[in-house]
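hiii, so i know i said id send this last week but things got crazy w the move. better late than never?? heres the sequnce for the chain we talked about at the cafe, plus the structure i predicted for it. fair warning i was half asleep when i ran it
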Amino acid sequence: MRSLQEALWRLLMALWVIHAWTWLHAPSALLTAVNAVVYDSTNEVTKIYVPYTPFSQTKGVMLLTVPTADVGTSSEVDADAGFYLEAVERTEIGTGYRYFEVQGDYSGYADGIVIGYNYDFETTLPKLYYKQDPNTSDYTATLTISRVNFSVGRTGPVEFELKADGSDEWKNVEYVTEANSYSADSSPIVSEKIFTIPVHQRNTNFELKVTSNFPYPVSLVSMTWEGQYSPRFYKRA
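okay and structure toks below
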């Protein structure tokens, strides 16, 4: 069990690095400061000019951070950090300037806007088996998984999907989590949280995956499962 958990941890951390890189450490082609933010009152849209060529026919995301001028002041709590909107890539007629367009007036947030692209985070978990020791998995026993618990670090919203064996349809699973809160007008990222996923299936009868397509990091720290294990009266040497 321990070796499986270690291997899973390495896989999840590698995927987290890829996902988090998009928004936290991405090069200018993925996430960057903007050259100018202009409100078009005629069309009621905000134009966000960028110093690079956006991906053609690819929708971006505008994310509000804490404006530079508000850092360390009482205005920081009203910064709307974490709010995001879909941004559409455009080319300005006449000048050829490239920009993103979002609905509404966000010109007042000019020094607190970042623009980039969502990357879909997705990882499918391996089959779960009971391990008698770090080197021995019991593949012949009967194992029913009641629930799976995920411990996460600095993480925004995530979703869980379950697929029955032999089916091509993934279904969303409503997780169980303790009630919590975060400050209004702030990013919905918590430092630590546990998600409990109800399964109630034989370990070989389902697949479980974790997904996220929100502009926030995902940090899966560990996973545990609870269930009923029966060796079916076999004796193993």
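btw Residues 1-33 have pLDDT under 50 and may be disordered. thought thatd interest u
miss u guys!!
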